[in-house]
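Subject: Interface between my chains keeps coming out wrong

I've been trying for a while to get a sensible model of this assembly. When I model each chain on its own everything looks fine, but I need the whole thing in one frame so I can look at the contacts. Pasting all components below, labels as-is. Any help appreciated, I'm running out of ideas.
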Amino acid sequence: NAGVTQTPKFRVLKTGQSMTLLCAQDMNHEYMYWYRQDPGMGLRLIHYSVGEGTTAKGEVPDGYNVSRLKKQNFLLGLESAAPSQTSVYFCASGTGVPSYAFFGQGTRLTVV
Amino acid sequence: SQQGEEDPQALSIQEGENATMNCSYKTSINNLQWYRQNSGRGLVHLILIRSNEREKHSGRLRVTLDTSKKSSSLLITASRAADTASYFCATDASGGSEKLVFGKGTKLTVNP
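Reply #2:
Try treating it as a single job with all components included. I did that and got this:
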C-alpha cells in the first residue's frame, strides 16, 4: 500500500520555467492538500481539494495552479517559477475534517 | 494567517525527561491534531482531540485542550532519543471550514 506518493522528489528549475508536481494517493480519499514548508514558517496551505473536479485556495495560492481531474491525483503547477518558490512541497490526503491527513515524502524544489 | 502557533520553537531535554509543547490558535475550532516530522520526512499524525474533549491519551502522549484559552498542550513522557523530531499542531476552523492549517512547529531534541 503506497499511501501518498509525490513525483518528483527533487527538482532544480531556472527562473521563469514551468513545472508540475504530481501527487497520487491510493486510499480513495476525497480531500487532498498541497503545502509548502519553509524554514521558520511551518507548513502553509497552498491549495486544496474536497473531491474530484474541485479545487480551492489556501493561505498562499499566488503563483500556483492546481487540478484534480481524477480522484486519486492532485497536480500542483508553477507556470513561471520564481526564486521565492524555492521550498519543500508536501501533498497530503484525507477523508476530510475531522480526520487525519496522510502525507507524502515531499518534493524539494530549488529555483535559481 | 496561520491558525496554530507552537511554543517553544525549540526544546532540548535529556532522555527520560518529559517534554511539553504548547499550541495556541486564534479562532474557534472543531478539532485539533498533533503531527510529528522527522528530519527530511513527511508528517505523521499522532493524535486528534475534538473541541468537546479536554484530554486524550495515546501511549506516552497526553494532549489537553482548553477552548476557553484557545490552547492545547502535548506532553511526551519518559522521552527517548527516537522522539527527536519537529512537532506541529493543526486545526480546522469551526463553521464548516475544510482547511487543515498548521502552525510553525516545535523542534524537540532528546539527548541520550
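Reply #3:
Confirming on my end. Residues 3 and 50 of chain B are 16 Å apart (CA to CA).
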